[in-house]
Amino acid sequence: MPNTATLQREAAVDVYRSVEQQLKETGAQACGLMFIHCAGQIQPEQQVRTHLERVGYTSFQVWQDERTQTVAVLIPGLSLNEVHYEGLRIKHDLQESVPGADPQITLASFPPGERPSKATIQHMAESSNLVDSSEIHIYTLEHTKDEPERILIVDNDPTVREFLQLRLKMQGYETYEAVDGLAALDLIEKVTPDLVLTELNLYGIDGIPFIHHIQKLEVEQPPKIVVLTEQRVEQTISQCFRSGVDDYMTKPFSPVELDARIRRCLH
Description:
Blueprint: H1 4-25, E1 31-37, H2 45-54, E2 61-65, E3 70-76, H3 80-97, E4 104-110, H4 118-127, E5 137-138, E6 150-154, H5 158-170, E7 174-178, H6 181-191, E8 195-198, H7 207-216, E9 224-229, H8 234-242, E10 247-250, H9 255-266
Parallel strand pairs: 4-5, 6-7, 6-8, 8-9, 9-10
Antiparallel strand pairs: 1-3, 1-4, 2-3
Helix pairs in contact: 1-4, 2-3
């Protein structure tokens, strides 16, 4: 029987798939789409439904992504100005009716015949968790063009993390960092990195089991995995490659060589 985490991930995938399908079915008209995320464990789905019904919309869809606590709202027929105005009203309503909600909102309007992919919809949803709650973020398809590749650095040594983060940012990558395996697994689901650069000696989940956990995550596109570790045992290296690791480097390492190996994995 699937565990709760697996069911939640499947539900999240279904949300994005449902949004994509509904957008396609409204292809003959403009369509407003917004994602709303509130602080803490606040789930604003019912308040959003009530608001839309109260202001008179007869055609709309609302979904709740239980994993990220993000609400998706699709309102056919709305231009960007109209969906932005509605986003402002929803934000104000939530602030008035739900103490501490502090809603973060990303929204867009897609003209007739222009519909985003599921990956774009997911990216838009993720952005609602990261935007400044003091303003509404207007999303366009240009956000998905020439996006920097995302690298998650996993290492319990803050000096190593800082060095890698600075160097990778200089190479044009978008970087994230985690101090242990559990934090890394949570971030992989949230930000869907293109590559995970990881030590094997980690707190909690580490080594080969950590690699297996990464590969079992139900994400749209599994990340490449590059191991950067102090472990030099030949058996460990072989196990990593048999487990699907894309590359393996030992510390101390050449930053120039690491740059080249990361580029090779990503391209």
